[in-house]
Specification:
This protein is α/β, with parallel strands linked by helices. Strands 13-14-16-17-18-19-20-21 form an eight-stranded mixed barrel, surrounded by four helices. It has a five-stranded antiparallel sheet with strand order 2-1-5-4-3, with helices on both faces.
Length: 721
């Protein structure tokens, strides 16, 4: 026997309610255990039916079997097997009961028809049926008086047969009776219906309830006039409890006991059918992932359970219901709230309750929540639209700083919905190659020749037209698409730069590609870069990777370990938007940084033209050749006498950064150069390279090649502003 079959045998054999001998029972259980092991619901249903076929119909058999399955097959798989086996068992038991009921009915009717004296002439036979039947049987007159019940029926309800014969049928009514049950009873009394079958609860003498499968049949006299009613009942209380347990599991969260997403959806449907207004608080715990990551999931689960208790306390009115949607997301649904102000009050109450400290084991924890709040007339929305509006409003609360609630605003949510739609479309857009790359020249300020280009991505949306990075890069970072998008841009840019290098081998230019924090921290990033270079044939010395200050520092504040390996292969590293972050100058000395890109605000302050005294030939430029070393720069100190005008703060900052960079062998590129005075001052201050609308807007790849083949200044062939 299998281990499962042996456990099964031990659980049911010792109770003494198994009608099979040992060998037959072992063989049966071994076969059924093999069926259950496959996890197939159809096989489990057959196993349940086989138990009934083997006359293993004592309720304890099913109870022990269900318990064992839950032990051996925990989780959702066990629940599926339990439900399927119980369904097969119930169906087979129902069919067996129906067959027995039909046999008894035929016996009664045959006795009635055969001797044409109905029950009056077959008292002994009917008494025999009553005494031998395994199910409860009762007979009542058309005025509702109970005239006979068998011992099985009386035992089920806790009475004696004589006690039941003093009762009338309406005394056996139960609060859970189906609404139309007594109407069916009246139809049988009038002779309009011969049979009724349904599930009914009977009140027991001890105050409990017994659930039964009830079949009522009408007995007519020789003239067809209704004379008696016979009721046959089968105890299905255990099956009913199992069904209710499975239904509870299907509609409630197992951790917190709160209604789950399915039950909340059903509750909202009920509200929309019967109420005029509806309110919803959709909340998400702030920073809950940190609790799980630092203290473990056991503490996290205990915290979720404590949060659920406080939400339940906030749902202390009949019109409110709290539920858990998933993870650390919860809802409070309100029937007919007294307007938006009532929902604001509820949201404030929830925030106050949730921010009180939690004592979880030996830990004292505090959490906050972000809440999206919606209040609406039911005629103006639907359950799905209500949930969507609340979810979008929750997202707004999180983006505005967390630990707060935000009321629904239609215009704002329309914008959020548009952002969601755009984010959802990005993966497919990447597959359809809708993202293209344009290039903005990087120009030597000494001779204004193109030395490199920066690769910039654009989205050619089929409906919205060309979208700039500001419209989709933040969404790509939020959704994680940025890694795949960055890989796409890097491959496209390297392939294009390699093509230019083959076409104009005497004037190679480097290509600069932006790298996001998410890309830089991917463990496989250095290997991906190496593969792209190998696939495209681009010289590593012609590739510059631009990273922000936050990207070059790892999560623990240490420098990103991948930089040294990338630099060792010949790739150059540029710090983008230098001066807008913390500008930690210490890492410039410790890390393989080759280029600093001055942020636009510094360049913006250099719009005044130089005085005539400073129109002398420009100082010698620093190392700009992409194949040359960046280790030396001949710039000397800025001569204060070279200009007759006062030196601005921006100039002093730029001068300091340039001197520092050159002292470390780092070249400097100025972004957002838009005017001739800016270019002149930057050149005068020793800045090496400029990039901006003065020289060119971003252009397609085809517009770059003529510049490489030209011997004149770069801006002469580009698209000045």
């Amino acid at each position: 026997m299998t281990g499962f079959a042996r456990l099964w045998l031990e659980r049911i054999a010792h109770e003494g309610f198994v009608p099979l001998d040992g060998a037959d029972l072992e063989a049966l259980l071994d076969r059924l255990a093999g069926q259950l092991a496959g996890g197939d619901p159809a096989a489990a249903r057959e196993a349940g039916a086989a138990l009934v076929a083997a006359h293993l119909t004592d309720p304890a058999v099913l109870a022990e079997t269900i318990t064992l399955i839950g032990t051996v097959y925990p989780g959702s798989e066990g629940t599926r097997i339990q439900a399927a086996l119980a369904a097969g068992y119930a169906q087979a038991l129902r069919e067996a009961t129906m067959a027995e009921q039909e046999r008894l009915s035929r016996a009664v009717l045959d006795a009635h028809a055969g001797v044409e004296r109905a029950l009056r002439d077959s008292e002994s036979r009917l008494r025999g049926i009553f005494h031998n039947a395994a199910i409860g049987i009762g007979v009542s007159t058309m005025d509702g008086r109970i005239v006979r019940v068998n011992q099985a029926f009386a035992d089920l309800l806790g009475y004696t047969p004589d006690e039941m014969c003093t009762m009338i049928v309406p005394q056996l009514a139960h609060p859970s009776d189906p609404p139309g049950m007594w109407q069916l009873y009246e139809e049988m009394i009038r002779g309009e219906r011969d049979h009724v079958r349904l599930e009914k609860a009977y009140p027991r003498k001890d105050g409990g309830a017994l659930w039964t499968d009830l079949t009522s049949s009408l007995i007519r006299d020789e003239h067809g006039v209704p004379e008696l009613m016979i009721a046959m009942v089968q105890d299905i209380t255990d099956r009913r409890r199992l069904k209710e347990s499975l239904q509870h599991q299907a509609t409630h969260d197992p951790l917190t006991g709160l209604p789950n997403r399915t039950m909340i959806a059903a509750h909202l449907e009920q509200i929309f059918e019967s109420a005029e207004r509806v309110g919803l608080c959709y909340l998400d715990l702030d920073g809950f992932k940190r609790v799980n990551d630092t203290l473990g999931h056991q503490i996290g689960d205990a915290l979720l359970a404590a949060v659920a208790e406080r939400l339940t306390a906030c749902a202390d009115e009949p019109c409110r219901i709290a539920g858990r949607m998933s993870g650390d997301e919860f809802v409070l649904a309100v029937r007919d709230p007294a307007g938006p102000s009532a929902m604001r009050t509820l949201a404030e109450q929830v925030l106050t309750e949730l921010t009180r400290p939690y004592e979880i084991g030996r830990h004292r924890l505090r959490v906050s929540a972000s809440i999206g709040v919606v209040a609406s007339d039911v005629r103006d929305t639907s359950p799905a639209e209500l949930m969507k509006a609340a979810d979008l409003t929750l997202y707004t609360a999180k983006s505005e700083g967390r630990a707060r609630y935000v009321m629904y605003d239609a215009d704002r949510n329309a914008r959020q919905a548009a952002r969601y739609a755009l984010a959802a479309a990005m993966p497919d857009a990447l597959d359809r190659d809708e993202f293209t790359v344009v290039y903005q020249p990087l120009v030597s300020l000494a001779d204004e020749r193109v030395r490199g280009v920066e690769a910039l991505v654009r989205w050619r949306h089929p409906v919205l037209g060309e979208l700039s990075p500001d419209a989709f890069i933040p969404l790509a970072e939020e959704t994680g698409v940025i890694v795949a998008l960055g890989r796409h841009v890097l491959r496209r840019a390297c392939a294009q730069a390699a093509e230019w290098s083959r076409q104009v081998p005497d004037a190679p230019i480097f290509v600069s590609v932006n790298v996001t924090v998410a890309q830089a921290r991917e463990p496989a990033f250095p290997a991906e870069v190496a593969k792209i270079l190998a696939d495209t044939g681009l010289d590593p010395r012609l590739l510059v990777l631009e990273l922000t200050e936050s990207a070059i520092m790892d999560t623990d504040g240490a420098p990103l370990g991948a930089l040294d390996g990338l630099a060792a292969s010949g790739i150059r590293i540029a710090i983008d938007d230098f001066g807008t972050g913390y500008s930690n100058l210490a890492y410039l000395r410790r890390l393989p940084i080759h280029i600093l890109k001055l942020a636009g605000p510094f360049v913006d302050g250099l719009r005044k033209p130089l005085p005539s005294a400073s129109t002398n030939p420009a100082r010698p430029a620093g190392p700009l050749d992409p194949l040359a070393s960046a280790a030396a720069n001949p710039h000397g100190p800025l001569d204060p006498a070279a200009s007759c005008s006062p030196v601005s703060v921006d100039e002093q900052i730029v001068e300091t950064i340039v001197r520092l960079a050159h002292a470390l062998g780092i070249t400097v590129t100025a972004e957002a150069v838009e005017t001739r005075p800016q270019a002149d001052r930057l050149r005068h201050l020793g800045c090496d390279t400029g990039q901006g609308y003065l020289f060119s807007r971003p252009v397609p790849p085809a517009a770059i090649l003529p510049l490489l083949q030209s011997s004149g200044p770069a801006y002469a062939g580009l698209t000045p502003r």
